[in-house]
């Protein structure tokens, strides 16, 4: 499946670094207690990465990064202060604690401020197979990127230009500790290869691309396969034609369907709810989707992009339904937003951990046959979504479908509706899951939306 040569494993110093970070976190907590804080929490992070970009057969960028940060939050009752540093020297740590304490003493009280309840802290740390360092140097990364672009540019003579190819590899270490006695560590890697190509000439040019991402080197698609797929996608967009304005079924390809789930998450997240800035206020227990639709959160997946045994508050994560039988089962809350709403945290401080949208249909071709006539969306543009009303209007491009098969490419169109109505009009979720995200969903068919075709 892949032509990426297996390289020798790099020297792994993550354990030593995590222990050092844990010691630093404990030192900060001790200083905060000495400074009079009733509660405190510390986050320590270290990241390093390599990214190489090429274009038209030449290396354009080589970027090596190494970042470190220590964030401290202290509480004096319900008053909160935060400060951060990247300096591990004792005098810097002391100054950071002093700054956080000084801020807390002068802030207004917030009844929702404070650590999550001690009884909710995670007690069973787990390993999720998310640590796979790649012994990648700049020369090897450049060779892979060049091979990817070359495969795409050589695929068809109509590929006349390139937006480039890139290879990236990153490692992240983190420690979270608080004055409840909780201390948790996390480490993960993320690697990627991508390519964007331009097909056609003059005003008829079209751009598209493809990428692969994984936690381990062996999870990546072959560079040549990525380049060829980028070329195929760009070529498929040539000879785009307008479509008549009207109301049609719209099939969001899997990589675009994630955005619909993202809008749901935004609307049921604690921050939007306690600010009264959501079109889904007071919606728990309501049917928002057809009765076959379901979403589950799966925080313990091996090699999951967002697997974790605790959230950003140290609260133990758990597998649970977000939507079941079309009914919203819960909100997405950290401890602060839960207190603001008078509810219990759902262990989602920092976001959700691996969502799985249940499929109700077969693959992409089956969905096309089922829709008959309508639009396939493969790209979305603009930010035309109102989180308060749910009104949805975005620029789009993709393909027009006639008699259950792709007829021609379309671009310069707009798809519009209201998210609440769109959710209710879901007709199918495909089995063609795009594995490149923590939101695992296939293509989603919406029974009717307004398509402004520019005809």
Automatic annotation (TrEMBL):
Domain (Metalloprotease TldD/E central) ranges: 132-238
Family: Belongs to the peptidase U62 family.
Gene, per the UniProt record: pmbA
Signal peptide residues on this chain, from the entry's feature table: none
Domain of life: Bacteria
PANTHER family to which the protein is assigned, alphabetical: METALLOPROTEASE PMBA (PTHR43421)
SUPFAM superfamilies for the chain: Putative modulator of DNA gyrase, PmbA/TldD
E.C. designation(s): 3.4.24.-
Residue intervals of the Metalloprotease TldD/E C-terminal domain: 245-453
Single Gene Ontology MF annotation: metallopeptidase activity
Domain Metalloprotease TldD/E N-terminal: 40-104
UniProt keyword terms in alphabetical order: Hydrolase, Metalloprotease, Protease
Identification of the protein by name: Metalloprotease PmbA
One Pfam family recorded for the sequence: PmbA_TldD_1st
């Amino acid at each position: 499946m892949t032509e990426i040569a297996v390289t020798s494993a790099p020297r792994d110093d993550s354990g030593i670094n995590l222990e050092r970070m844990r010691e630093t976190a404990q030192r900060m907590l001790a200083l905060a207690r000495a400074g009079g804080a009733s509660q405190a929490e510390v986050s320590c992070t270290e990241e390093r990465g390599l990214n190489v970009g090429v274009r038209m057969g030449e290396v354009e960028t080589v970027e090596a990064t190494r970042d470190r940060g220590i964030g401290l939050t202290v509480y004096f009752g319900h008053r909160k202060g935060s400060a951060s540093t990247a300096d591990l020297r004792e005098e810097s740590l002391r100054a950071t604690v002093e700054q956080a304490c000084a801020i807390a003493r002068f802030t207004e009280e917030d009844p929702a401020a404070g650590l999550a309840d001690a009884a909710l802290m995670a007690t069973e740390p787990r390993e999720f197979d998310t640590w796979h360092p790649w012994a990648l140097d700049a020369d090897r990364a450049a060779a892979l990127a060049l091979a990817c672009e070359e495969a795409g540019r050589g695929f068809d003579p109509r590929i006349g230009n390139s937006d480039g190819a890139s290879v990236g590899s990153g490692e992240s270490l983190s420690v979270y500790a608080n004055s409840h006695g909780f201390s948790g560590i996390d480490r993960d890697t993320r690697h990627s290869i991508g390519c964007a190509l331009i097909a056609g000439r003059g005003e008829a040019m079209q751009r598209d691309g493809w990428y692969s991402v994984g936690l381990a080197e062996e999870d990546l698609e072959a560079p040549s396969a990525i380049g060829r797929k980028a070329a195929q996608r760009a070529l498929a967009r040539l000879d785009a034609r307008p479509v008549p304005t009207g109301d049609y079924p719209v099939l969001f390809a899997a990589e675009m369907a994630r955005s619909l789930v993202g809008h749901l998450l935004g609307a049921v997240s604690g921050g939007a709810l306690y600010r009264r800035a959501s079109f889904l206020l007071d919606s728990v227990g309501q049917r928002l989707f057809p009765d076959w639709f379901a979403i589950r959160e799966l925080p313990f997946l091996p090699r999951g992009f967002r697997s974790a045994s605790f959230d950003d508050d140290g609260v133990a994560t758990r597998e649970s339904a977000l939507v079941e039988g079309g009914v919203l089962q819960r909100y997405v809350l950290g401890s602060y937003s839960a207190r603001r709403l008078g509810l219990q945290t759902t262990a989602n401080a920092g976001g959700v951990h691996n969502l799985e949208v249940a499929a109700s249909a077969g693959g992409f071709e089956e969905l096309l046959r089922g829709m008959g006539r309508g639009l396939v969306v493969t790209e979305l543009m603009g930010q035309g979504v109102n989180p308060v009303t749910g009104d949805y209007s975005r620029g789009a491009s993709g393909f027009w479908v006639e008699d259950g098969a792709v007829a021609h490419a379309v671009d310069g169109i707009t798809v519009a509706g209201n998210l609440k109505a769109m959710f209710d009009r879901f007709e199918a979720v495909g089995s063609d899951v795009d594995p490149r995200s923590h939101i695992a969903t296939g293509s989603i068919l919406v029974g009717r939306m307004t398509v402004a075709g520019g005809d």
